[in-house]
Design goal:
This protein is α/β, with parallel strands linked by helices. The protein has 14 helices and 16 strands. The radius of gyration is 23 Å and the shape is elongated.
Length: about 425
């Protein structure tokens, strides 16, 4: 029996038209109703109806009259930057950091709470503290919350399957946060959202790209043929718990010698403290020592870079991807660390595959925050936030605006009793 796709309903058509008109205003605005009808191919009556609804909801506004060669001057429309605010969250290593982001991709309010050694229930309390700070700072309508979290994430329902660094297993983070705040919530692996951000905001749009986030943990986000590749179990790129030093240091996952025990920021700072016989330094202190040529620090940092380079060489050998972006906090060590990464990649990977590979340093702080916010705006409104971030004058492009969103954790989603932390 052949399964036929369900027929589009009137509501589906309305949603499609609304997204098409809204995205067109956003990308080319200011625009008149007549111009929108010509660009979208919709009738003037349909455009007028859709615009009326957008005006009522505050997603569009009239900003005055446009030029006219003859007849009545057209009324121009635009999408206000503050029509909706979005919360982007990065559950990073030393702090949980987030921002209120407007529809122009500008971070209006930034807040962070120290994560320290928080894990399990205490880590979730820190997330709620951060959201208290951010949601209490805006009086504008909030569209939703995007969260970049470490570990294996089921993006379909927002469940953290396993996050070793914060000791979460089977935590329905999306449902918990959604139930508390009554907002749509999207949860995605932080390395994967870093790859989406690097793909969307980069100066050159590449079909294939790998973003490796190196902070307290290590993970890779894979963009293949222009789309995020998550693997059969949505855990593609989880390279931090691949054993590279058998019999080495004990990892938080319970095994020894994982990549994150020798190449992550946390591992580097801990080893500096051990070799010096002091508590682990702050990242800023370690970077200063590295730049000053401290032999102990230089040796540890460059060795970490070589371990990472060997791991990335494996990705290059498997996928033959030419563009690698390094994000997170380890890139703070700069070009000398990057040179060590590149050198080891060249030693390990097949030379013919490395010939056209570029490896560059990405953003250290906000790539996950902006990426999470951009993902939510695209899924909820069909707007490509990257166009506004990348340039103040976006290109005249009408794309497919009615993409299927990731399922959201709705405020009414059931929350398992064992995970109903405060």
């Amino acid at each position: 029996m052949i399964r036929r796709p369900p027929k589009a309903t009137i509501r589906d058509a309305r949603t499609h038209n609304e997204r098409l008109v809204l995205s067109t205003i956003y990308e080319i605005g200011p625009a008149s109703r007549a111009h929108l009808a010509r660009l979208t191919g919709l009738t003037r009556t349909t455009v007028s109806d859709v615009v009326g609804d957008l005006l009522k909801r505050g997603l569009a506004r009239e900003i005055g009259l446009g030029p006219s060669r003859r007849g009545k001057a057209p009324i121009l429309l635009e999408v206000p930057a503050g029509a909706r605010h979005v919360i982007g969250i990065d559950l990073g290593e030393r702090v949980f950091r987030g921002a209120v982001v407007n529809l122009n991709g500008e971070m209006i309010k930034v807040a962070e709470v120290p994560s320290g050694d928080s894990n399990g229930e205490s880590a979730l309390k820190r997330v709620n503290q951060l959201l208290d700070l951010l949601l209490g700072s805006t009086s504008w309508p909030v569209l939703g919350i995007g969260i970049g979290a470490p570990g294996l994430i089921n993006t379909e329902d927002g469940t953290v399957v396993q996050a070793v660094n914060i000791d979460w297993r089977g935590v329905p983070l999306g449902a918990i946060v959604g139930a508390r705040w009554g907002l749509p919530v999207y949860v995605i692996n932080d390395s994967q959202v870093a790859a989406l951000a690097a793909h969307s905001f980069g100066s050159v749009r590449r079909s294939n790209l790998v973003a490796v986030k190196v902070s307290g943990g290590i993970g890779a986000g894979l963009i293949l043929n222009g789309s995020l590749y998550q693997g059969d179990g949505q855990g593609a790129g989880e390279i931090g718990h691949t054993i590279v030093a058998p019999g080495g240091l004990l990892c938080q996952c319970g095994r020894r010698g994982c990549l994150q025990t020798v190449a992550s920021t946390r591992a580097v700072l801990a080893r500096i403290g051990v070799d010096r016989g002091t508590p682990p330094p702050l990242l800023e202190e370690a970077v200063a020592s590295f730049e000053a040529g401290d032999e102990v620090v230089v040796k540890i940092v460059l060795e970490a870079g070589r371990y990472l380079g060997a791991a990335i060489a494996g990705i290059v050998g498997t996928l033959n991807v030419h563009h690698i972006v390094l994000a997170g906090t380890m890139p703070t060590f700069g070009q000398r660390w990057l040179t060590a990464v590149r050198a080891e990649m060249s030693e390990v990977a097949l030379p013919a595959l490395m010939r056209d590979v570029s490896v560059e340093l990405g953003q250290a702080d906000d790539i996950v925050i902006i990426g999470s916010a951009a993902l939510l705006v695209q899924r909820e409104l069909g707007l490509n936030l990257r166009l506004r971030v990348q340039s103040g004058k976006p290109p005249r492009r009408i794309g497919a605006v009615n993409r299927q969103p990731l399922p959201v954790a709705s405020p009414t989603s059931p929350v398992p009793e064992e995970a109903t932390w405060p």
